[in-house]
């Protein structure tokens, strides 16, 4: 036994523990979470009228006197099982807003619904895949002596993809400041779409809310050049949201026109800086607007495909997409050692440098240097789009028999006592996570037959 690796010896020790089967139940309940949170505490459920104890739970009776719960991290690089669960929840959340379900009526599928992709503008030419990168007949060089074009044919795995042709010409300040204002640009965009819709049907703008409501779910994704772009589902309802039919003028064509016009028009001004000046930030000219069709007809993508597409992006960490890192950088030296490309490192350094200027203090650029200045959530949705992550988790808790008892009072006392696994426990957890993933795959195959 002494010759076995430490993890195996630890696993054998765990398996010989008299509480092993209960411990395994706990690990299974976390879905094989890679970094579970350890809690110590108790809950007591009392009858609201009589004060009689209906149910009592105390971690004193558990192995190690603790309960393990999921870390709930959305990133696959941090915890694969929890990220799968999060992707599933995102899929259901986005899908419910498109097709109904989870308290959203099925009639939403007949409304005007668009799948919109908004991009960042150009901050300078970067190497790209495709036939030829950036062909130029007249050749020529920039002020730094670097070629203005690139005649190469890059393969998709080429490390040059997304890197600027000239780092000295590239507008790094513009890129970082655009990230820092992207959420504001989105808010202005939504307000402007409402305005345009109102104007197009002769409504006073302040009356729009009495006639219709715009709902959306959007997800941010880093492109090759490490600039965020936004995929969004946009839907037009009646004034009370999903339960309410939109007015007859609320067609997909009218919504498309408003989205296109607003995307080209809205802008955000950066605060004036002696070092950078004042920038006018807009969306990039690349814009994609596709109406979604209820019957899967037309040439638009299907509802399920859109929900799956959006769900895929929320599980990607910044490190996985090759933009930034999953952890905050604390010092300038952290940026030097981060496992990122030269382009991303320069973006991180630019965030750090601009973050030291008083005029940009409200943007917290040093706190968000690891995400290159972007500080929005990966998934954002309006209140009436569909359900919430919290509601989906509550629903799952009920499925595993933790249903609410009516008229009951619950007293709970919980304390954090640690996190993670010992090397042997990690082996068991990984095995369980793999089993669950395989079962899910088999179940999916069964459904498709
Ligand atoms: Zn986890
Ligand atoms: Zn190139
Ligand atoms: Zn140059």
Automatic annotation (TrEMBL):
Pfam families assigned: RepSA
Superkingdom of this protein's organism: Bacteria
InterPro entries per the UniProt record, alphabetical: RepSA
Protein's UniProt name: Plasmid replication initiator protein
Species of origin: Streptomyces griseoaurantiacus
């Amino acid at each position: 036994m002494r010759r076995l690796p430490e993890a195996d010896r630890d696993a054998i020790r765990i398996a010989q523990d008299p509480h092993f089967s209960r411990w395994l139940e706990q690990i299974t309940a976390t879905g094989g979470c890679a970094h579970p949170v350890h809690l110590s505490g108790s809950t007591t459920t009392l009858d609201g009228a009589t004060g009689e104890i209906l149910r009592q739970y105390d971690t004193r009776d558990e192995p190690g006197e603790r309960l393990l719960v999921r870390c709930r991290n959305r990133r696959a690089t941090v915890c694969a099982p929890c990220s799968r669960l999060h992707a599933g929840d995102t899929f259901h959340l986005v899908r419910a807003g498109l097709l109904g379900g989870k308290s959203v009526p099925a009639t939403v599928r007949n409304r005007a619904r668009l799948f919109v992709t908004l991009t960042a503008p150009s901050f300078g030419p970067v190497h790209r895949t495709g036939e030829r990168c950036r062909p130029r007949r007249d050749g020529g060089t920039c002020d730094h002596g670097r070629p203005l074009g690139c005649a190469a044919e890059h393969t998709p795995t080429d490390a040059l993809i997304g890197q600027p042709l000239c780092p000295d010409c590239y507008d790094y300040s513009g890129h970082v400041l655009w990230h820092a204002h992207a959420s504001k640009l989105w808010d202005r965009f939504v307000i402007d779409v409402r305005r345009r819709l109102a104007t197009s049907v002769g409504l006073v703008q302040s009356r729009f809310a009495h006639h219709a409501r715009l709902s959306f779910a959007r997800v941010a994704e880093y492109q090759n050049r490490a600039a965020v772009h936004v995929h969004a589902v946009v839907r037009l309802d009646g004034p009370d949201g999903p339960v309410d039919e939109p007015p007859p003028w609320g067609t997909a064509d009218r919504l498309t026109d408003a989205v296109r016009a607003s995307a080209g028009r809205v802008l955000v001004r950066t605060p004036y800086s002696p070092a950078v000046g004042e920038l006018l930030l807009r969306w990039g000219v690349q814009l994609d607007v596709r109406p979604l069709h209820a019957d899967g007809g037309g040439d638009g993508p299907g509802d399920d495909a859109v929900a799956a597409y959006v769900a895929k992006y929320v599980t990607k960490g910044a490190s996985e997409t090759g933009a930034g890192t999953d952890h905050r950088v604390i010092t300038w030296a952290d940026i030097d050692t981060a496992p990122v490309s030269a382009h991303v490192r320069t973006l991180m350094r630019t965030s750090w440098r601009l973050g030291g200027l008083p005029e940009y203090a409200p943007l917290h650029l040093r706190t968000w240097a690891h995400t290159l200045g972007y500080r929005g959530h990966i998934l954002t949705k309006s209140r009436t789009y569909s359900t919430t992550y919290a509601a989906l988790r509550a629903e799952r808790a009920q499925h595993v028999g933790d249903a609410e008892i009516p008229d009951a009072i619950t007293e709970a006392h919980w304390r954090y006592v640690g996190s993670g696994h010992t090397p042997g426990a990690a082996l068991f957890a990984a095995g369980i996570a793999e089993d669950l993933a395989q079962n899910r795959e088999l179940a999916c195959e069964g459904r498709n037959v």
